[in-house]
Design brief:
- The complex is a heterotrimer of chains A (about 240), B (about 325) and C (about 300).
- Chain A is α/β, with parallel strands linked by helices and about 240 residues long.
- Chain A has helices spanning about 40-50, 75-80, 95-100, 110-125, 125-130, 140-150, 170-185, 195-205, 220-235, and strands at about 5-10, 20-25, 30-35, 55-60, 65, 80-85, 160, 190-195, 205-210, 215-220.
- The longest helix of chain A has 16 residues, at about 170-185.
- Chain B is an all-alpha fold and about 325 residues long.
- Helices cover about 80% and strands about 0% of the residues of chain B.
- Chain B is built from 15 helices and 2 strands.
- Chain B has a two-stranded antiparallel sheet with strand order 1-2.
- In chain B, helix 2 packs parallel to helix 7 (about 170-195).
- Chain C has a single domain (about 5-290), classed as ABC transporter involved in vitamin B12 uptake, BtuC, CATH 1.10.3470.
- Helix content of chain C is about 70%, strand content about 5%.
- In chain C, strand 1 (about 140-145) and strand 2 form a beta hairpin.
- In chain C, helix 1 runs antiparallel to helix 10 and helix 2 runs antiparallel to helix 3.
- The longest helix of chain C is centred in the N-terminal third of the chain and has 32 residues, at about 10-40.
- Chain C is globular and about 60 Å long.
- The two termini of chain C are about 40 Å apart.
- Classes of the chains: A alpha/beta (about 240), B mainly alpha (about 325), C mainly alpha (about 300).
- Chains in contact: A-C, B-C.
- The interface of B and C includes residues 116, 126 and 295 of B.
Chain lengths: ~240, ~325, ~300
Amino acid sequence: MTLEVRDLVVGYVKEVPILRGVTLTAADGLVTVIIGPNGAGKSTLLKTVYGYLKPSRGTVLHDGREIAQIGPKNMLREGIAYLMQGHSVFPRMSVEENLELGVWIFRGNREAKQRAFSEIYQRYPRLAEKRHTLAGSLSGGEQRMLEIARLTMTGPKTLLLDEPSVGLMPKLVDEVYEEIGRLKKRRFTILVVDQNVKKSIEIADYVYVLKLGENSHHGPQAEFKERLPEIIREWL
Amino acid sequence: MTTWSAVASADWRLSTLRVLKVAALLALLVAVPPLADNPFITTVFISALMFGLLGAIYDLMLGYAGLINFGYAGFMAAGAYGSALAWFHYGVNPWFGLLIGGAITAVLGFLTGVISLRIKGLYLALMTFFVGEALRFSISNTPDYTRGMLGLTVAPFPDMLGISFSRSNLLAYYFTLLLLGAVIMMAMWTLVRSKIGVAFKALREDELATESLGLNATHYKLLNFTIASFLTGVIGGFYAHYLGILSPSPEEFGVPRTVEVLTITYVGGRGSLWGSLFAGFLLIGFQEYFRGLGPIRLLLFGILLIIVMLFARRGIAGLKKYVW
Amino acid sequence: MDLAMYTDPSVLTEILLQGLVRGSMYALMASGLSLIFGILGVNNFAHGELFMIGSYTMFFIVATLQLPFVAGLVAAALVLFLVGMLIERGLIEQLRKRAGRDWLLDSFVLTIGLMILLQNLALVVFGSNRLGIPEMVSGSLIIGSIIISYERLIILAVAALTVLLLWAFIRFTAPGKAIRATAQNPEAALALGIDTMRVHTYTFGLGAALAGLSGALLISIFPAYPTVGLQPIVKSVAVVILGGLGYVPGAIVAGLLLGVIEAFAYFTMSAGWQNVLTAALVVLIMIFRPYGLFSSAKGERP
């Protein structure tokens, strides 16, 4: 599934657009990374793709289908999953209950639910161990794993990851990126936004730079790996 | 005429116009009751003015400092019973009783402010609600002192300056209230335009930011609440001697009463003293005049509040530009 | 106040029992309010009027249509479920679209307007007569020197059962989990495909149904009249604050606790003072434990 954004104009308040005509493509099965200085609008872009914000101009296409107007609650059914910035586990519910909500759109279909569950517990044995623990009492890293696992349960084709490593200790950051690497091997289409430029570019296939709500450079990962220090210097 | 002087003279014309409008309204207030020479009209005007003032005082707390007092009727009771009991048990002159009512209510306001320093918004509303209810129930549970639900009879004002204040001379009461009201409105108006008023507004917007600017939020919260309570107590005292009988029922000093004043302030527009005064006058005037309609009047109150919350969030003050 | 009385176990038991009956009433009334606050962030001050509509429904079904009591209970719950959904879609949702950052306060004031509207609508339509029904069941249970009327026992039983079912529904069923998810993180819930707007509507309906059921169940104690909702709302708000705003199990336990405390107060002080006691308790809790009795000092719930 290819995700395309064309000429997107979005703002929280109509008169103040955060994105001023952004265009990008997240190609099928590849990891596309968006980097840029603070306030560039990277998170706003993901929120708009997922329907939390309606663009005043431009389109969002998923596999050729126009999705800008369908709203966040219809996205999983469309095959796109979203890892929100910050905490998104349901803290006063158990790990298992969180995962149950991960397959909310499968309700009524017991087989699909069973399959999704057995698969997820196989892939993430640590979550299986802690299935009855309250999600709020898990460590930061474990919560992130739960969030990522919950994301993939319904078999989406495309993943949007908003600052997956923010607030985590370096060791956990590595773990999260190892996980993203595994997701990459499973051929998800992944669109990542992260402050941690070094780590995100490492796993990227393609990179976009966003500045002040507009496209700056973009290109395959190889181009960016060497030019990294000078790009970052540009922002400062 | 140069552009500049044209603008200046237009401005001058605008503010003269405004002064004229205010003067006209004031003239109506002063002239209508005596000219109508109808006791019913006078009682309507007294109630309307009283609630207009209460609405404005309530707005001092709500619209200017963002403090919502959902136990307001209890504060009114403090003023009313304060003055009444001072007369009833200790023979205090009702004129002086007004100050006593004000003082007692001010203390109540201060104490309430002290215990709710850290509490804001909805939670402050609920806290003040229970304070008000506690006071009301205390009054009704001490019939030996307050006559409780049996009702406390209160003397009218004694004659002063040769004017009779027997309850047949309603005009005397009206003009007393008008005078009192003018003083109160002037005082509040001066207050909100002073530096203290600016601090109040800052409090309403963002308490945290206020603190960071070095303003002591607690200090201003207490000041606002105490002043507003004092003024409420004075009106409460007037109410007691005007009405002649007090009882701590819910309709008189409970939730329904607080809601009346709150509705007036919301409909008049939070943050506009004159808007609340106007709204109170209008709403209660209408309600009293059409007393025969019964519960339909209050029904309209409820609908009005809903409409204001959904569609006219700035109240009458927001519509000012269309009519004023 | 004869302290010797307190050492008499039958007296204590009777007070306790009366307290639990009263408490179960409070728990039932307050659970709906707590649910609505927890999920929608609305401190529904019109909750007492929803109670009132339940009372009138019960009267209509049982006294006018001469149908059995159970029919009245069911009808009240259903009617209020619908009314609740209408209120949520027609008013609350409309405010949500237009409100700024003062949601808690603004929605509260909106419900105040609703309260006045419903009270006076009832007054206009039904008049101020108190429409009561004598008890569902007559007679009393006598154990030793303890006397409890069967009526009160039924109230206790139905309230307890309802509260239990409510708890089970929220805890174990899929819709219950969707409700909890919406309360804990609405954006995440939306991302997983949960229709949070629909959750809001159904939850308000459920909360209203609980209020209506209370009104119907308690009709032998609170007959149907326009302002019958005033006492229930005050008690419910007190219970919800004591139990922790939005924490339903807290409201249930707090309701029972308040019932018992009031029963003791009723026994020792003269009638009116229990209300002052309740008010004082609430004020104290708001000062020292603003998140309710069951939160840790940090304000987190268990």
